[in-house]
Every structure is written in C-alpha cells, then in structure tokens.
Amino acid sequence: MDGWGFALAVLLVEITPGPNMAWLVSLTLAEGRRAGLMATAGIAIGLALNAALSGIGLSALLVKVPVVGAWIGIGAGLMMLWLAWRGWRDAGGAMEAAQGRTLLQLTGAGIVLNLLNAKAAVFFLTVVPRFLSGPDAPFREIIALGAISVGVATLVHLGLVLGAARLRRIVTRPDRVRPVRRVLALGMVAVGGWFFYTALR
Length: 201
Hints:
With 201 residues, the protein is mainly alpha-helical.
C-alpha cells in the first residue's frame, strides 16, 4: 500500500476548487468560524461514509449505472440551492442568530452533500485500487486509505475555514452584512449549478 502517494493524490484533488471549498468559504464568511467548523465536521463524516460505501462496493453502481449518479448529483444541487435560499432570506438578520439556528443543520448538510457527491465516490472507487498492495489486498488497506483521504481533506478544509474566518473581520461591518451575505448566497447557487452540470453532462 502506497499511503504517501495516495495522500499526495488526495491533496492535489482537494486543493483544486470544488463544491466543498466554495461552500465552506462562503459559509464561514457569512456565518463565522464556528459554522464553518461544524460544516467541516459534517463533510468529514460524509466523506468517511462515502469511502466506506466505496470500500464495500456499493459505489460501483455509479459506474455501471450512470443515471444513478446523475440523480444523486441533482439531489445535491437541489440541497445547495435550498441552502442558498436560506442564506439569501436571512441576509438582513443578525449573523449570530442565524449561526445559532443552523449549527446542527450545517453538520447534517455537510454529511448529506458528501453522501450525494457521486464524483467523490467515483474518485475513491477508481483511484484507491492503484495504491493497494494488489488485487487481493486486505480490507484494512482500503480502510486505511479511506482514513488518509478524510484526514487530508479535513486538514485542507480547516485551513480554508480558518483563513476565511480571518477575512470575515473585514467584510462583516454592519453596513456590509446584507450585501455580503447575498453575494455569498449567490456563490452557493453557483455551487448548486456545478452539481447540476456534472450530473447532466
């Protein structure tokens, strides 16, 4: 098992702009570090579940029956549009109140979005075999690679959240709250559009 090589491959994928990155930065700028950290925890759980499903072979269905992956992607896009609508609707309210209402919901959203991320499942399903010791590698190697994938992704996501939290101090003056939150809601719409595009192409 080539754990270091796999970690590098995951890192290269994670630093490429994608839906998790866009969502975490937008969310942290809009609602603060705590909200970003809760979402990061949800993403980590979702990625771990995604990796586990891939490990037992269920994600092979996404490769054999592409329409399943398309519907999953549409579901993820719809959920992101719902999150964007909530952000737009709450744009005029106090950030702290919005944060308090949604912390557990954000963790759940992170879990669901990454369970619905068919591309992540296909990545794990197609890339992991290249780093195993052989076609008959023990299941513990798959689990170890899954843990590496989640660990590397979580470190990248934490870096994004902490960086966005610092930037938030600049953009959260009272006179900027409404326009900033609405711009970020539009960013979430773009992430939803990304899910629709990848599902339907």
